[in-house]
């Protein structure tokens, strides 16, 4: 049984190059402060809500590995959550398409390069028309999807202060349930996760951490999972921006609509 689960985990994560790993501390339920104030869950949701109305620099690292090898995928850029626009670049060594540029504008996502198109042409697809194909990968690396999952954390508890990029922040730990893990998942992903859940007899173990600074801002989030010797993490840093995110759609003459987007870098 454990070997079957490990094989399922490998299939789900190796396809993605990212996921989550390992038991997180503080799965003991929500707590109020000494004065009966907001719960840890309330604090996390409020901070995520604030971020969802603003903008941030995005620096995401996804790592999947075992005792012998580690695979890394990075997503970097800037995103204005309130205006629903942003620009990202995804990179992963050792694959056919190792770098992809993305623009989120007007409910659409523009990508370059795209398999089947000339290297200088942008593909375009509706932002809401794409599902996640792999475990804990956001559709088209959409950072808003990550916030939607974090906002649904359960059994949230505060785990003390730590320094993140030189800033003191409180770490909040929790878990993601099956519905959250499969949020906007493709039919194939939901089928695979359903089978993993049946074999385990419970939700597939996915844990989350969110760091919130003294000003109530989310500065980092981590998704983690471990299954036998396979460990995967998704770490996202959110940086305050000094100026608005300025993104324009590519020239229409350089754009080709695409029905679907495949590949490791697209989620």
Order of helices and strands: HHEEEEEEHEEHHEEEE
Basic shape: globular
The radius of gyration over CA amounts to 18 Å
State the strand order across the main sheet: 7-8-9-10-11-1-2-3-4-5-6-12
Keywords: Signal
InterPro entries: LolA/LolB/LppX (IPR029046)
Organism: Streptomyces mesophilus
Signal peptide: 1-20
Task: Annotate the secondary structure layout.
Blueprint: H1 2-14, H2 40-52, E1 55-65, E2 70-80, E3 85-92, E4 99-105, E5 108-112, E6 122-126, H3 143-150, E7 154-164, E8 167-176, H4 178-181, H5 187-200, E9 206-213, E10 218-227, E11 230-239, E12 255-257
Parallel strand pairs: 6-12
Antiparallel strand pairs: 1-2, 1-11, 2-3, 3-4, 4-5, 5-6, 7-8, 8-9, 9-10, 10-11
Can you offer a commentary on this structure?
This is LppX_LprAFG lipoprotein. It comes from Streptomyces mesophilus. The protein has 267 residues and is an alpha+beta fold. The chain has a single domain (2-266), classed as outer membrane lipoprotein receptor (LolB), chain A, CATH 2.50.20. The protein has five helices and twelve strands. The chain has helices spanning 2-14, 40-52, 143-150, 178-181, 187-200, and strands spanning 55-65, 70-80, 85-92, 99-105, 108-112, 122-126, 154-164, 167-176, 206-213, 218-227, 230-239, 255-257.
Key features of this structure:
alpha+beta, LppX_LprAFG lipoprotein, twelve-stranded mixed sheet, 5 helices, disordered N terminus, single chain, 267 residues, LolA/LolB/LppX
């Amino acid at each position: 049984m454990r070997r079957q689960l490990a094989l399922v985990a490998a299939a789900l994560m190796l396809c993605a190059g990212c996921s989550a790993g390992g038991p997180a501390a503080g799965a003991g339920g929500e707590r109020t402060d000494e004065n009966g104030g907001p719960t840890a869950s309330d604090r996390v949701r409020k901070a995520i809500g604030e971020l969802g109305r603003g903008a941030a620099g995005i620096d995401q690292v996804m790592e999947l590995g075992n005792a012998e090898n580690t695979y890394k995928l990075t997503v970097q850029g800037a995103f204005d959550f309130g205006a629903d626009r942003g620009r990202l670049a995804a990179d992963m060594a050792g694959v056919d398409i190792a770098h992809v540029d993305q623009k989120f504008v007007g409910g659409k996502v523009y990508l370059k390069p795209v398999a089947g198109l000339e290297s200088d042409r942008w593909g375009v697809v509706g932002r809401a028309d794409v599902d996640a194909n792999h475990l804990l990968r956001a559709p088209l690396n959409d950072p808003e999807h990550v916030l939607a999952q974090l906002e649904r954390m359960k059994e949230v508890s505060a785990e003390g202060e730590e320094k993140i990029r030189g800033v003191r922040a409180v770490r909040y730990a929790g878990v993601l349930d099956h519905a959250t893990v499969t949020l906007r998942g493709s039919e194939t992903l939901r089928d695979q996760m359903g089978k993993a859940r049946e074999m385990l007899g419970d939700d597939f173990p996915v844990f989350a951490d969110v760091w919130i600074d003294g000003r109530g801002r989310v500065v980092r989030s981590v998704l983690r999972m471990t299954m036998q010797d396979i460990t995967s993490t998704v770490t996202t840093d959110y940086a305050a921006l000094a100026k608005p995110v300025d993104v324009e759609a590519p020239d229409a003459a350089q754009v080709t609509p695409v029905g679907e987007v495949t590949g490791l870098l697209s989620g």
